[in-house]
Amino acid sequence: MKILADLVNHIFPASSSQPKKDVLLSSSAVNQAEIDFSDTSLYEFEETKKLVQHVKNAFALIEKKGESAFSELRTDPWYTNSSYIFVAGLDGMGFVNPPAPELEGQNVLHLKNSWGTQMIKQYLDELTLHGKKAVWVHYLGINPHSGQEDWKSSFVMKAESPSGKGYAVGSGIYNMKMERVLVGEDIKDTCELIEKEGLGAVRQLMTDKYFKDTFQIFTQ
Q1: Dihedral, 117, 6, 206, 177 alpha carbons, nearest 10
Q2: How far apart are CA 123 and CA 161, in angstroms?
Q3: pLDDT in tens, 140-191
């Protein structure tokens, strides 16, 4: 698949001394405020609905059984040739990762892809620092079927076991079909980043702030 996410029209002035300008971001999706991403009715594609429901079921299992559910999550139907559930502590400790069991029992917060994106830190920050209960993260990862880096979209929820300990539980899809609701959220995050960092936001937007084959257009 040819990834178009690298295509960005950057027409901000080169000099950071220029006065702050208003920025218009164009998207085919409508920006939305607070969204419950665990609501399967938000999504258009069946594969997205199935992924979200799969994670919700694992979330419910952990909330009911706690840590005793981990061994179950390493087996079918949770772990198959096409999908698996992963579980991490809110501090980054890995607990369930069936295709990479060597990561279990280790802190995985530092893991990065070829772009330098810390995928696990990305979703843990959303769940802990920003207090969200369910999030999507989009990043490049090694697709086991192709052996190449492809876009992976992971849905992650924050669960609490009966012991009171918090966990991030999720699963992902490679080259997922684009959902309009997720593009809308990406535009919202981009606006917030530009308002916070101004021109300094552009470099970040040219690395890991994309959802699959989309790009964002900036005008003065």
Answers
A1: -60
A2: 19
A3: 988 878 888 899 999 999 999 999 999 999 999 999 998 988 886 666 666 6
Planar angle of CA 182, 56, 78, nearest 5 degrees? 110
Using CA atoms, how far apart are residues 120 and 109, in angstroms rounded to an integer? 6
- Cβ neighbour number for residue 85 with a 10 Å cutoff: 25
pLDDT tens for residues 4-27?
A: 333 233 323 334 344 443 434 443
- Closest to 211 measured CA to CA, from 155, 132, 167: 155
Q: Write the single-letter amino acid at 173.
A: I
Q: What does the block give as tokens for 60?
A: 């419910």
- Provide the whole-model pTM: 0.75
Q: Computed from CA positions of residues 115, 96, 154, 174, in that sequence, does the dihedral angle turn out positive or negative?
A: positive
**Cis peptide bond prior to 99, omega within 30° of 0:** no
